[in-house]
Design brief:
mainly alpha, Arc Repressor Mutant, subunit A, 2 domains, 8 helices, 6 strands, P-loop_NTPase
Length: about 220
């Protein structure tokens, strides 16, 4: 909701726990709830903006107004929900094919036809090598400056500069190869070369019905 021109593909899992007619019913219910949620968000933003514009001293709220207007301009494209049985390899392949089909759609992703400079691929390949090397810790965390120095040791990347690496990391972050939270002050100097480690950590910390599980412990 905060990323301009976002494309969201809802995925419903645990199809194996439902009857066939239930799946369609739940699909329609989820899509209807998403539509209602977006409509409510749009209405709330408009309400907040009107309140700020109608205040007695609107000049004091310029920063807040600009943030709200920026959020209001962020459009979301919601694709049709894909229902899958995660225990079925065929369903996983079906989901993969659906994602690839959407990603190749130039109307949804105009940048899909953009040609990247060769250095992007070279840095990507070098980062993959570093991430898979024996010296890389399991958590896959690496200091930005240290990563730059490691990449610069490659003969064809000797002239790689800080700003170019930042641009390349933004691209690699967008495609999911690495995770780099440059907008978070305490994390801007850390690059996560193994995003799956973060997923494992989140699975340990963020759990369904976690509060109820903790409360049930005597």
């Amino acid at each position: 909701m905060r990323v301009p021109n976002s494309v969201v593909l809802p995925v419903g899992t645990h199809v194996d726990c439902c009857q066939e007619e239930e799946v369609e019913k739940k699909r329609h219910d989820i899509m209807a709830k998403i539509t209602a949620m977006l409509a409510e968000r749009k209405s709330n933003l408009a309400h907040f903006i009107n309140n700020l514009e109608g205040s007695k001293e609107p000049e004091f709220y310029v920063d807040q107004w600009e943030r709200l207007k920026e959020m209001e301009s962020c459009t979301l494209t919601i694709l049709n929900l894909v229902a899958v049985n995660c225990m079925d390899h065929h369903d996983i392949k079906k989901l993969e094919a659906t994602i690839l089909e959407h990603v190749k759609n130039e109307e949804l992703f105009p940048e899909v036809v953009r040609v990247l400079p060769p250095v992007y691929r070279q840095v990507e390949a070098a980062i993959v090598d570093i991430a898979q090397s024996e010296e890389m810790a399991d958590h896959g965390m690496m200091d930005f400056q240290y990563l730059l120095s490691k990449l610069s040791q490659c003969e064809h990347l000797a002239s790689l500069g800080r700003e170019l690496l930042q641009d390349i990391l933004r691209y690699l972050h967008r495609i999911g190869l690495v995770v780099w939270y440059e907008e978070i002050k305490h994390l801007e100097s850390t690059v996560f070369l193994q995003p799956t480690f973060l997923i494992t950590m989140f699975k340990l910390l963020v759990r369904y019905r976690l509060v109820q599980q903790l409360e049930s412990i005597s």
